[in-house]
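Weekly puzzle thread! Below is a chain. First person to post its structure in token form gets bragging rights.
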Amino acid sequence: MKIESIGRWILRVVPIHRVSIRSMLPPDEVARRLRDRIEPKRLLSRPEAPFRGAVRGYSFCLAPSNQDRNLFRPYALGRIKERSGGSLVVMTVRPHAPTLILLLLNVTLAVGAWVVGGTHSRTDMAMPLVLLAVTALIVASFWLVEPLLRAQIADAIEGSTEDPSSGNPP
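Winning reply:
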């Protein structure tokens, strides 16, 4: 396996995706519709809107509204661009920073545990395998929830269709 193909495989596993959504609406209307469905982040309030975040001009940052403030749910950072006959919403969907730090920490600890004690016995391999299993569950949950967030944003824009050339999970 070549180094380039290993790098591409790693980038496909990392839970950060660039996604495009096309709309026939003008950029001002897309921004207005998103703004109408986004509630500012507040510490102790129950969300009324489907998203929390902000729209500033043609840029936005949003996450699904939920009661439990789940850090494992992805959020989207994006821009609304004008294109012929409508708009193109280009966004990056990714987990929150603490989730990415947890993933990195799990992988680092798993490799460290394997290097330090994993070569001696099968029981020494239990800890690295548990850490890698937790990491795999977090990444799998992102793969499952990310398309739902993408669909929610497309529904919020109304009348938009996903760009088939956008990055879908492998």
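Puzzle host: Confirmed. Bonus trivia for everyone else. The beta strands are 17-23, 38-39, 51-56, 59-64, 75-83, 86-94, 161-162.
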